[in-house]
Amino acid sequence: DAGVIQSPRHEVTEMGQEVTLRCKPISGHDYLFWYRQTMMRGLELLIYFNNNVPIDDSGMPEDRFSAKMPNASFSTLKIQPSEPRDSAVYFCASRARRVNEKLFFGSGTQLSVL
Amino acid sequence: DAKTTQPTSMDCAEGRAANLPCNHSTISGNEYVYWYRQIHSQGPQYIIHGLKNNETNEMASLIITEDRKSSTLILPHATLRDTAVYYCIVRVEYGNKLVFGAGTILRVKS
User: Fold this and answer.
1) Which residues of chain B neighbour A99 with C-beta distances below 8 Å?
2) CB contact under 8 A, A104 and B102
3) What would the 3-class secondary structure string for B64-89 be?
4) CB-CB contact of A79 with A65 (8 Å)
5) H/E run at residue A47
């Protein structure tokens, strides 16, 4: 398996633009998580899905952030409009349904909003 | 989920054992201890987890005290590639969220 695949690897955009980050989880995994990492706040859980359904989005910072999972093999995290304070590394992770299953992370998307 | 406390940073000589402590004094009976690490510019990677018995796998050993209030992750023969941030996390068995703290920066030096 290729692991969790995220794209793009790097994204540079200007304030006010829409940004879409993409994630392909490991095949067969039922859970998908979006994390954000900054120097100031560390790794923060934004939202997670179970069987394509959003379960907990309490970590989503504002209405400018939205996440979707239209099918078991694809998820997006969208920021509209983007702001400089959204600059961070965004990680997607997935895991299987079994109890205590390990979390597998993608390589992340480095987002810079100018 | 219970909170954990880890030292901010540690150094270890290459080839020696690295012992990373974690305090989780408020841990509940149904909470597991997980360890992940994050090498620079990569996503976190699972290392090991346990409930109350000591655990060992190909990467590391996990020693949990009898009262479960603390644990130690042991990398038996640290290499330069083990330089990373190590996260100790406590989570209930059926919990879905994995909440990361600040972790311990381990620097392995030659």
Assistant:
1) 93-94
2) no
3) ECCCCCEEEEEECCCCHHHCEEEEEE
4) yes
5) strand A42-50
> How many cross-chain Cβ pairs, A to B, lie less than 8 Å apart?
46
Q: Which of B32, B99, B100 sits opposite A100 (nearest CB)?
A: B32
C-beta of residue B89 within 8 angstroms of C-beta of residue B34:
yes
- Nearest-angstrom CA–CA distance, B48 and B44: 12
Closest approach of chain B CAs to the CA of A110, in angstroms?
9
Place of tokens 């402590």: B21
Q: What is the pLDDT of residue B99?
A: 86
Per-residue confidence (pLDDT) for residue A113, from 0 to 100:
97
| Cβ-defined contact of A91 to B43 (cutoff 8 Å) | yes
pLDDT interval class at A1 (50, 70, 90): low
Provide, rounded to the nearest whole percent, the portion of chain A with pLDDT above 70. Answer: 98
- CB distance B97 to A48 below 8 Å: yes
Which stretch of A19-28, A63-72, B97-106 has the lowest confidence by average pLDDT?
A: B97-106
